[in-house]
Amino acid sequence: MKAVVINYGVGNIYSIYNALKKVGFEVSIELEPKRHADIIVFPGVGTFKAVSTYMTRYVDVINELKKSGVAFLGICIGMQVMFEYGLEGGEKNKGLGWFKGYIDKIKTNSKLPRIGWDKIRYVNNEKCRPFLDFDGKYMYFMHSYTAYIDEYNNICFISEYGSAIIPSMILKDRVIGVQFHPEKSSKNGIEFLKRIAKWLKT
């Protein structure tokens, strides 16, 4: 299967490139979305403004590919830009609007940014059952902003950070978003990417 990792022009994307290759994907890094992909990956690098500015240039192509059945995986900021808008840095920037809700700073009594390993917990959601056995697994997080989601039926996993409940995996049609970094999550992250490959075949 073919995966395209989008290069927004910011940050290091080779860790997700290498992780996808490790689980058997044929991977390419592209400056713009490609029609030949089975899945397009929005990597977890950059700011909301930088990534949403990129998306603005290609939004018609991206939406057309989504409509045609191409799957998408958004990681960290790559997931966040799938929402309606973000408030990072005190300014409002438009997202893709694939999920209802917005992105803002984590409301917590714990230190930000959140960096490190945390357990993800399965939300009883039938469409997420292919990923059920990741309940209780530890994944690696690195963020200060989170999704405030309006559609709870699209949440698969949550995690806790201090007093905050963080949507940690979301799923809608052929679109997956994860707040954690599978490419930095060691064995659990590799197994998660393998599960995505299996899910793509269903």
Instruction: Write the CATH homologous superfamily.
Output: Class I glutamine amidotransferase (GATase) domain
Structural class: alpha/beta
Fraction of residues in β-strands: 35-45%
- Compute the CA-based radius of gyration: 15 Å
The coarse silhouette is: globular
| Element order: H for helix, E for strand | EHEEHEHEEEEEEEEEEH
Number of helices: 4
**CATH topology group:** Rossmann fold
Task: Give the helices and strands, then pairings.
Blueprint: E1 2-6, H1 14-22, E2 26-30, E3 39-42, H2 48-67, E4 71-75, H3 77-80, E5 83-86, E6 93-94, E7 99-105, E8 114-119, E9 121-122, E10 138-143, E11 145-149, E12 155-161, E13 164-172, E14 175-178, H4 186-200
Parallel strand pairs: 1-2, 1-3, 3-4, 4-14, 5-7
Antiparallel strand pairs: 5-6, 7-11, 8-10, 9-12, 12-13, 13-14
Describe this structure in words.
The protein is an alpha/beta fold and 202 residues long. It has one domain: Rossmann fold (3-Layer(aba) Sandwich). Helices cover 24% and strands 35% of the residues. The chain has helices at 14-22, 48-67, 77-80, 186-200, and strands at 2-6, 26-30, 39-42, 71-75, 83-86, 93-94, 99-105, 114-119, 121-122, 138-143, 145-149, 155-161, 164-172, 175-178. An eight-stranded mixed sheet has the order 2-1-3-4-14-13-12-9. It has a four-stranded mixed sheet with strand order 6-5-7-11, covered by helices on one side. The chain has a two-stranded antiparallel sheet with strand order 8-10. α2 (48-67) links the parallel β3 (39-42) and β4. The protein is globular, with a radius of gyration of 15 Å. The protein starts with a strand and ends with a helix. The model has no long low-confidence stretch (mean pLDDT 96).
